[in-house]
Design goal:
Length: 268
Amino acid sequence: MTCKLCGGDTQLFGELIVLGHHRARYLRCEACSYVFVEAPDWLDEAYADHAITALDTGIVVRNLWLADAVDALLRWRFRKVRTALDYGAGTGLFVRLMRDRGHDFRWSDPYCENLFAWGFEAEADTRYDLATCFEVAEHLTDPLPAFHELTERAPILIFTTELLPESNPRPGEWHYYAPEAGQHVGFFTQASLRALAKKLGRHFASDGRMLHAFTTDPLDPRWLRVVAKQRHARRLLRLAGKRKPLTWSDAEALAQRLRAQQSTGAPH
């Protein structure tokens, strides 16, 4: 197979037993070092019970960290952003956190129930000033079309995926392969994300580990390295001062919607 990102030749990188009984073959691109599962035919089983795996015990800590990081970027680097989309938004926790910080974020996730951002779902095909996409890239069997859709909807994309360490751990030698859950099927390097950005006509920036950006205008990666450290992001937020939250105006808007539905007898 050729690489799904850059079209380079691939070679077998290793094998693992996934979900206890599926044999997975991992291929590695000789050009950009992207590692991906050859034919993950167990994904229906992997997502059958829940879109969010029980192994993701860091989901709350990660959302709190990302809320600080993205809030700091919006307050200092992307001050003109007014509307934002969170793709693969899961339960909606990040969207709620960002709205509570005064940013108009919208929820979108075809596989997960919206629990915390009800009433603030994204409209199909609506364009936004910025999009976020956290812990989604490693789940994609074909990343290029998914990222193409996102960059068509917003000129700025902030996303996370843990980069393959420079030691090039093979399957079974790195926690992020997560064969017990069977949901991680693609593993990126900076070179592979740079190749993807080039295909999309975007500039690429990264903190070198987890936090990345595709932008129409160049972004100094030092911004990502700074906000990736939560204490630095919080210091920037203290310097920026308070911002009016949307918490209570959201509650009033939802109350008005519910009253309108109740008066017409429409389902909630």
